[in-house]
Model the fold of this input.
Amino acid sequence: MRKILLYFGVLLPLTAFAVQARLTRSGIIIVGQGDSLRAFEPFRGQQDGGLGYADAVNKYKRTFGDAVNVYCMIIPTAVAIYCPDEAKEWTKDQQSTVRNIYSHLDNSVRVIDLFDTMALHAGEDIYSRTDHHWAPLGAYYAAQKFAGIAGLPFADLSTYERHVIHDYVGTMYRFSHDAAVKNAPEDFVYYVPTGVDYTTTYIRYQLGKNRKVVGEKAPEEGNFFYNYEDGSSAAYMTFMHGDTNTTKVKTSTRNGRRLLILKDSYGNAIPAYLFHSFEEIHVVDCRYFTKNIVHYVQKNDITDILFANNAGHAYAAVTHQAYNRYLEQ
Done:
């Protein structure tokens, strides 16, 4: 008889979770080994923290009023979904922190709470085992929930082209310096939409010391998806070639809806699932933006704003400070 584990009300095979866990010198939690190995960062936030993020989201809603729908999606990191009991002493309770932030949002802000969604699909490959990001499949389920709450059409995953980068080992090897992570490669699977036309335009940023923006290039068209060979540790940069740009995607969808995604790198995997949902999608990173966001929203006739940050970024003061600065700079 196969043993099962009750997690967030979902029954999962106990084999999906390792019974042994260890903490590396660099503070990374490692669970299991081989094909079942999973490495993730602890969450450091306190239950009553992160309220600056809620204040920033509320400020955006007050600034744009009824003219723009504002959504808040705080993305759980892998530790919130997969951390076994024996490792919970090394991390804080992420769910209570995130839902406390949600409780301080104005009623006019629409919440995209992903904890139950991620838990429901925890037996699938929704988070990378060897990288600090979620996997593209996790972003698909998040985008699906967002589209449903926003009242928009959404294409089923079966309509996408499936692409695989084999022998992927992501950032957790560099973070942990642990050979077991290096010896546990995985497939990086991403999905390219079909049945919709789209063009992607970038403003690329030039960075100086401390990764501060010191210049930007003129807008230029490029690919949304970038190809990486098997074994590349940079596979997550498949989407928009990373974070250091502002991106505009114009699609063949015609419904008058134009989305602005305010995000960290987790948000990079979301836009392609929404090409059937919006006629334009604009993507701004919480670390690299040089313009006034009010003028940007007005100039581009934005109808919807989605805050899409992982829980660590949502908790960090530097994130809400940047979003507040974007309103004024």
Notes: The chain is about 25% helix and 25% strand.
